[in-house]
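Posting for a labmate who doesn't have an account.
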Amino acid sequence: MSKKIVILNGSPRRNGNTSALTEAFAEGAKSAGHTVTEFFLGDMNIHGCKGCFGGNSSHLCPCVQHDDMDQIYPAVRDGDVIVLASPLYYWNMSGQLLTALNRLFALEEGGDNLLRGHDKASLLLMAAAGRHGFDDVLRYYDHLLEHLRWHNLGHILAGGNNAVGDIREKAELDEARRMGESLR
């Protein structure tokens, strides 16, 4: 059965190591017949959440702010698998990804809660200069998926990537490709 996969790529580098992970994953997923939509958040105009509690999930664009999140909401609403991709920045996800995640809260407000449950699954793809330091972000990711009641497909963490392109020969690229191919 074909899945709708949404990648939220929080890397500020279009050709960086995180993007190499998303590319490998997308290749595998497409080869298995899945539809992949990737949002490169670094090129998008997304404002921070205002904390106004004015969202309404019954609206196509549920947030009171209208920016490039209006492109993301329908994709996430209809997606089966949501891939969160980010470099490890200061022991967490990038600001680009965290801002988009905060804004997804609008899909939980008002009418129906369109994020919680709904047979969604998620995968975390991360690249980092160091080989350690993923503990805090994994704790956050696991807690987020528990709250959302999404199936946790796991994570692929690629450490030891100081310069753009360092990931090229690493096993994590093959692992990401295989993960994309294996989705059922």
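Reply:
Got it, the structure tokens are right above this. Residues 4-182 form a domain with the Rossmann fold fold (CATH 3.40.50.360).
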